Amino acid sequence: MTDREWDSKLHIDTCGREDHAQDGDHYAYEPTDYCILERLVQSGYIGRDDHLLDYGCGKGRVSFFLNAVTGCRVTGIDYDEDMIAAARRNLKTCRVRGRTQGSAGGRTGETGGGLGKTAAEKQIRFLEQDAMTYEVTDENRFYFFNPFSEKILRVVLDRIVDAWYALPREMYLFFYYPEDEYVGRLMMTPELAFVDEIDCTDLYEHPNRRERILVFELEGGSE
Fold first, then answer.
1. Mean pLDDT value across residues 187-212
2. Is residue 57 part of a domain?
3. Residue range 84-109: average pLDDT?
4. Is residue 223 part of a domain?
């Protein structure tokens, strides 16, 4: 399906680039193509028991898609109030997937839009917040599509590492279309271990080596 067809299926509007709030440290909103997100899902790193944090969530495409396909919970954060407003509008109309009533232990199912603060916001939430001040709680999956500068990334990585030390658990970080500065910082972070590269070059007519998702894990995170 095309991106617009996926948007229609999920009852959301996430297409289009937005650069009105771009500055030296915060980059323009550009949604990840759905075909990339499909490839991420196929990797098996995200399941319904996971809680994913989407840095620079914009209008919420990553959040809605990964919830709909895997059933995971998602928190999206963005410093741009207009992007968060757009994401919250989508939250009112989206289709969410999660545990619904119907059996002793609950079951996984899809629920229609217009859910307000009931089922939808139990699965997906959007916060207007600076990534450098966000306190990681129980999130164990983290998604980045170059939302901010390497300077901010350093602080964000420190906060993720601190959260692991406070509550050791399996943690995976996903970096789509990573900039060289990001890769350098990741390789210099001793607590991170490179575990996989999800190749996406075949998805486009003109292959680009940066069309990939780098996967890192907090070392010892599953112990």
1. 94
2. yes
3. 66
4. no
Mean pLDDT, rounded, of the chain: 87
Three-class HEC string of the chain: CCHHHHHHHHCCCCCCCECCCCCCCECCECCCCHHHHHHHHHCCCCCCCCEEEEECCCCCHHHHHHHHHHCCEEEEEECCHHHHHHHHHHHHHCCEEEEECCCCCCEEEEECCCCCCCHHHHHEEEEECCCCCCCCCCCCEEEECCCECHHHHHHHHHHHHHHHHHCCCCCEEEEECCCHHHHHHHHHCCCEEEEEEEECHHHCCCCCCCCEEEEEEECCCCC
Domain count of the fold of the chain: 1
Range 135-151 average pLDDT: 96
Range of the domain at 175: 3-218
CATH assignment of the domain containing 66: 3.40.50.150
